[in-house]
Amino acid sequence: MNANKKLLVISITLLLSVIGFHVTGQNTNTSTGTITLGLQEVSLIDANADVSLVLTPQSAGLAVKPSVKDSTARILISSVVSAENTRDLSVAFSGTLPTGTFLKLQAKNPNASFVGTAGTVAGEIEFNNTTSQNIVTGIGTCYSGTNADDGYKLVYEFGTSATNENYADIRAVGGTAITATYTLTAAQ
Questions:
Q1: 61-80 residue pLDDT tens
Q2: How far is CA 138 from CA 12, 107, 115, 145, 155, in A?
Q3: For residues 116 and 24, what is the distance between their CA atoms, to the nearest angstrom?
Q4: CATH code linked to domain 42-186
Q5: Euclidean distance between CA atoms 86 and 139, whole angstroms
Q6: Phi and psi of 49, rounded to 5°?
Q7: Contact at 8 Å (CB) between 154 and 105?
Q8: Is-contact 135 125, C-beta < 8 A?
Q9: What is the pTM of this model?
Q10: Is residue 188 within 8 Å of residue 139, measured between CB atoms?
């Protein structure tokens, strides 16, 4: 056989081998892959909740001011829940109130910067150093924002519970610290 014919036969054989291999190696023109996605639950809280409440005299001859309020504290949250679950925001107080006084707390609805399900704010609660108390229930997936006026506004009220009969029991104290621990948990 001459060289040109041998080269032609070898070329045709190689071409058929490549085409045949290509056709037998591929059984479809599509393929699939699995992409696994996830989003973890999120439960983040930050409290800007340090306040100072001092009962001061009104004027000579009068009792001390009956109460004083502060509404500068805020609770910021980020929450992602699964399915129809919700979260509750609670507070637990620790410490001892001065004799003849009370401490109340009320959470207020967040401002318009809040995005998502803010839940329902509870009414005013009184100091209780034995149990945790819910201040917001039914919180869903949401975030509060981080500006100074974002989040749940906390209104504290400190006052005297003394009456004319027991006013003499009030004692001056300075720097009595009450700790408020805020917790964002799965709804019970």
A1: 888 889 999 999 999 999 99
A2: 76, 14, 14, 19, 20
A3: 55
A4: 2.60.40
A5: 5
A6: -125, 20
A7: yes
A8: yes
A9: 0.79
A10: no
Task: Tell me the one-letter amino acid at 35.
Answer: I
Q: How far apart are CA 80 and CA 38, in angstroms?
A: 12
- Cβ contacts of residue 95 below 8 Å, gap of 6+? 129, 176, 177, 178, 179
For 104-150, give the DSSP string.
EEEEE---TT-EE---EE---EE--SSS-EEEEEEE-SEE---STT-
């001092």: which residue's tokens?
A: 54
| pLDDT tens per residue across span 7-65 | 555 666 655 555 555 444 557 889 999 999 999 999 999 998 899 999 888 889 888 88
In the numeric block, the tokens 């019970």 are attached to 188
Q: What is the rounded distance in angstroms from the CA atom of residue 183 to the CA atom of residue 46?
A: 10
Q: Sort 154 into a burial class: Cβ within 10 Å, 0-12 / 13-18 / 19+.
A: buried
What does the buried/exposed string (b/e) look like for 9-31 if buried means 16 or more CB atoms within 10 Å of the residue's CB? eeeeeeeeeeeeeeeeeeeeeee
